[in-house]
Amino acid sequence: MRIRLKPKSNRPVLLGLLILALACGSNTTPGLEGSYGFDTLAFVQRSHPGFSVSLLAPDLFLPGGRAVVLKPAAATGEIFELSGLSEGDVIGLDVAPDGERIVFSARMAEFDSHHLLEMDLDFVLSGETCIKEDGDLGLACRQLTFGPADDTRPFYLADGRVGFVRSHPWGPVDFQGRGRARVLHAVEADGSRVSRLEYGPGHALGARPMRDGTVSLVRATQTNGILRFVPLRIDPAGAEAHLIAGSDMPSSALALNAQIDDQGRVLAACIPSAGTFQAGTLCAQEADGNFVAALSGIADGDGCSPDGRLQHPVPLGEERYLVSYAKTPNGCLTSEDEIRGLLPDFGLAVLDTALAARYPLFSDPDKDELFAKPVKEHALLDPGVTPPARPEGSCAEGGVLLQGLVTNPEIVAVRVLEGISGAEAPFSMELGGRSQGAYCTGQQGSVQLATVENVASGRGYKLRSPSQVPLKVQMLDRYGATQSQDTLWWGAGSCAVRGAPEGLESLSTTELLDRPEYQRGFDFRRDIQPILNRSCVANGCHDSETAAGAYVDFSNRLRGLDMHDAASGRATVAYNNLMAVDRRRDSHTGVVLEQSDIYVTPGSAKDSRLAQRLGVPCRLGNCAAGDWAAWGVPAGFVHPLDQAAFEALVTQGLLTAPSNEDRWLIVDWIDAGAAFYGRGATP
Fold first, then answer.
1. Which residues is 202 bridged to in the sheet?
2. Could you tell me the pTM of the whole model?
3. 119, 388, 496, 516: least buried by Cβ within 10 Å?
4. Burial state string for 328-366 with b = 16 or more CB within 10 A and e = fewer than 16
5. DSSP H or E stretch at residue 78
6. Alpha-helical regions (H) of 27-82
7. Tell me, what DSSP letter sits at residue 528?
């Protein structure tokens, strides 16, 4: 039995919009007719959230969400329901380049997860069912993703796949250690082979395809305790590594859902990371990569002023943009409205930035209208641009080729770190640690990852490392300590290339593929704790009775260091104390005003008090006798604070002076992220 879909009745709303349109001399909305080539809009309707949430918070389940079309695309148009959901929810929607298919993310019930569905628009509009009343799929739709993960915010890629954001309950943890990080993925057009498109920690926010074939996004991560929002462009085919596309963004204005308009400008919605119901103002990217407001002159109460709130801008040409804008009874939502507790209603409108005008398009006072897209045939790439070749089967060597020139004369070696997954994360990271745990991959010794000769001759390097994993490149000095490194974790598919080849043609490639003999893991109990036991833990030194130390914290208290090996939670007393962070908070709000790593700075041994106090001798390149790191203690000091007392303990056989190998192992462990355990280690 075929059921004809009936338009939803919105007579009070449509009547008001019709009167407004007639007052302007037309019964259609300006900007949505003639040369624009479409007369139908697809979008999502969701229930109003009861409160504003952070962009980093888990998605709310709002029953009553659905995918719909407005036909004709004007204030006098009628709404046709597409999805057929009754108690489910929808987050995200996109229209295929052929204009005949729509992909959206649907969740059937609260106990379910969001999955991607693709519908045939003609089938639905002719009466075929997408989702039946019992939750099963009808003839008009097919499901693309399955499983316990939430798959949301889909978009079509130029190579035929569908990109989306996945938040998996067992997947990578976010930078706060809570799990369910939002990671960019893609699925084949037939629903097969879900693949990961990027490998950094934290959340992928506002991902959209660009007309040059890349995907723009903002990665929310954390470095040394500081929340960072980094704009990125990635190659979805994996042919090249992603690039940082500008300076870090302020948390008050993240440029999300970036698109390119007919003038070649990159437009986005600049949205605060918290508050304002995930809406912001229209902004444009300048030559320096920063975004500035692109919307001005619209009177408050009559449209979106520069401090108004909108999201999901879509360029329509001639400086007009389709947007979802947040209204309150006074007009467009402002931060002051939110403070007063006024809940917004998101409606659709066309903004004309040249005339500083807003033309209301559609608004249901009981729903929010979001993720609007014109239904028409369109191109995803600029003329003359072809999508990058998919690397499968096109490369005999595999892996990711890392290459580059070294300009700092202190650098003598290159190291690659491979991040561990959320399931293998160290305890401190699960509780909100400051950096991703990692383990080294590559041979140990002077040819640990890149031979000294590769860097010294021609000042360049070529490394082939594993693909499909999060990676970080570190530059080492002659003491084996990290002098500089990638600020972000990144990854790429097989055959990807990172770095320019100029000046490197004569260099051979060092193999770092993920073979067991090239792996190195760290286990704090197995590798580091024995060094502490024989060289630090003794009566009168760093044991539970004395806990010697000379660190003065922000409260002006002297803090000692207990390196005892007793269990403490899922780690040990020594590990928890070494990883401690000193924080000074506002006494009224509890906000952290300043913080400092006390003994260990994960990822940087030369900045860690533990390595500084131990001292580190030269180990790579041409090492002279007595050449110890300038950032540590000189060779003659086996203990910087109380050499005589330390030597007495050694003489009595209570302690053993740490060997050079011990010192180097501690440096490697810290520079690799100071994980409690990693691959190959025992929890």
1. none
2. 0.75
3. 516
4. beebbbbeebbeeeeebbbbbbbbbbeeebbbbbbbbee
5. strand 78-81
6. none
7. I
Ordered domains of the chain (ranges, CATH): 11-374 (2.120.10.30), 400-518 (no CATH), 524-671 (no CATH)
Each residue's pLDDT tens digit, 157-197: 999 999 999 998 876 666 555 557 898 999 999 998 888 88
| CA–CA gap between residue 266 and residue 217 (Å, rounded) | 13
Three-state helix/strand/coil letters over 306-331: CCCCEEEEEEEECCEEEEEEEEECCE
Mark residue 617 as left, alpha or beta (left: phi above 0; alpha: psi -120 to 50; beta: remaining): beta
Considering only CA atoms, give the Rg of the chain. 29
CB contact at 8 A, 599 and 580: yes
The string of pLDDT tens digits covering residues 551-607 is 788 888 888 888 888 888 778 899 988 988 888 887 777 777 787 888 998 888 999
Query: At 527, is the secondary structure helix, strand, or coil?
Result: helix
Query: Residue for token digits 């913080």?
Result: 595
Answer for the pair 301, 330: CB distance below 8 angstroms, yes or no. yes
Q: Using alpha carbons only, what angle is made at residue 205 by residues 173 and 242, rounded to the nearest 5 degrees?
A: 85
- Secondary structure of 281-304 as H, E, C letters: EEEEECCCCCEEECCCCCCECCEC
Whether the ω angle into residue 72 lies within 30 degrees of 0, i.e. cis, is yes
Total residue count of the chain as it appears in this document: 683
386 class by beta-carbon count within 10 Å (0-12 exposed, 13-18 middle, 19+ buried):
exposed
b/e per residue 406-435 (b: at least 16 CB within 10 A): beeeebbbbbbbbbbebebbbbbbbeebbb
Residue type, 379: A
Q: Which residue has the tokens 């929340």?
A: 227
Q: What is the average per-residue pLDDT within 491-518? A: 69
Q: Which of 186, 200, 116, 189 shows the shortest CA–CA distance to 150?
A: 116
Distance CA 440, CA 419 (A): 9
Which residue in 596, 602, 579 sits closest to 672, CA to CA? 602
The neighbouring-strand residues paired with 105 are 116
- CA atoms of 113 and 135, how far apart (whole Å): 13
Beta strand 510-511 with 460-465: parallel, antiparallel or unpaired?
parallel
Question: 536-547 b/e with 16+ CB inside 10 Å = b?
Answer: bbbeebbbeeeb
Specify which residues 240 forms β-bridges with: 497
